[in-house]
Amino acid sequence: xxxxxxxxxxxxxxxxxxxxxxxxxxxxxxxxxxxxxxxxxxxxxxxxxxxxxxxxxxxxxxxxxxxxxxxxxxxxxxxxxxxxxxxxxxxxxxxxxxxxxxxxxxxxxxxxxxxxxxxxxxxxxxxxxxxxxxxxxxxxxxxxxxxxxxxxxxxxxxxxxxxxxxxxxxxxxxxxxxxxxxxxxxxxxxxxxxxxxxxxxxxxxxxxxx
Length: 210
What we know:
Largest sheet: 2 strands, antiparallel
Structural class: mainly alpha
Order of helices and strands: HHHHHHEHEEHE
Helix content: 55-70%
Shape: globular
Radius of gyration: 21 Å
Strand order of the largest sheet: 1-4
Number of strands: 4
Number of helices: 8
Number of domains: 1
């Protein structure tokens, strides 16, 4: 590990190239141009499946398969965007740190130091955020829009948030706890607690959580 770090210290440009490659891989396959089209297709197919089920008519396997494929595609794109947003948030803090080391920070910037990303202010444990994500989704019926889940969590956590949770993050235009909750949601989709194939903009409890 030390040798790898020494390599980047001697040639920082290699680190920049590596970061760019990582970002390209995360963003690979995520095409914002056709996202809206896929969302529209998924909505219409979901309606058709629901209508057939209510009528007692067997749903063609091909139709179900296409619904699953579209949901998976949109879920992957959503995770990619969330990961990229997290990286953007972290890199913003790194740039501020670099500017400080170079003496490029103004007095005004220094005055905002207590609210910086790397603040030592205590924050709510991730396990608590996880618990409240599940609780909020159960309250909302097991599936809901991201904004609704965050709003419900805000009601549940009122008076319980710590100083670090209430720091404002300019890069994501939200409070620290809200951004951390969205990042924790990503981990929850990886372990099956939440569905990873939910339509874009929605969070949904996984099997066995409802």
